[in-house]
Amino acid sequence: MYIWTDASRIATPWGVAFVCALLVTWFWSRRNAARKGLDTSHIDLLVPLALMLGIVAAWTWWQFSGFRIRLFETMVCSAVVVFIYSRIARLSFRDLLDVVALAVLAGVAVQRVGCVIAGCCWGDVARHVPGIRYPVGSFAYEQHIAQGLINTSASSSLPVHAVQLYELAVLLAAIAIGLRIRWRDRPTGTLGLYAACAYGVGRFLLEFLRADSDSVVAGLNRVQLQATGFVALILLIRWIVAAGQERSNRPREA
């Protein structure tokens, strides 16, 4: 099967999915903020601001580095925007992370539906499982032509892994697990760290099935290296914070 978009349309399925993803993230974040007793006007400003500036920062990086914009870079840049906003607004960064954590995963899940339709973020050739065939002019089709896997008379690409749907399933599983854990019994910010690590690990594994990136080091592509460093940094920060809390709670000798 394959689905493609008509470039002449005013609203493409990818664009519609993008708007839906933003709305889902905003609505769920706003609901979480209200439950925590936070002023929801902060969410009304922060969600579009973080997304917009995150895209701008990722685009700027792309201009200097030559690497195309990816969702992972945008999410990291958006997290930096959330941190800066928390300092300016004098809010707890950990609280904001917990508020938006699962909402962001839900938004990414919605966006991946648009990626399936648009044919971006496509997978490698699927040889042992059912895959998606994309039509003439699609990213996968052009790649298979360049690699000599098909000729110009082919009406579609070879079947490729539906990695966008795989990621959708991983995100929904992470959200389901996150909803079942009693985060109130855990330190503030733990939910945010969980969501970030879950996405980082899931994205690392799924990159092995994607075909839109070249390996950089030891068979790993740039996104996998970024995800590894991102998760390692999160775990290091968590360890430092936990160690500091343990020292502060330790009774002093008389």
Task: Describe this entry's structure for a reader.
- With 254 residues, the protein is mainly α.
- The chain contains eight helices and two strands, in the order αααααααββα.
- It has helices spanning 13-36, 40-65, 71-88, 93-118, 139-146, 163-180, 190-206, 222-249, and strands at residues 215-217, 220-221.
- It has a two-stranded antiparallel sheet with strand order 1-2.
- Strand 1 (215-217) and strand 2 (220-221) form a beta hairpin.
- The protein is globular and about 75 Å long.
SSE topology sketch:
Layout: H1 13-36, H2 40-65, H3 71-88, H4 93-118, H5 139-146, H6 163-180, H7 190-206, E1 215-217, E2 220-221, H8 222-249
Antiparallel strand pairs: 1-2
Question: In a nutshell, what does this entry contain?
Answer:
With 254 residues, the protein is mainly α. It has helices spanning 13-36, 40-65, 71-88, 93-118, 139-146, 163-180, 190-206, 222-249; strands at 215-217, 220-221.
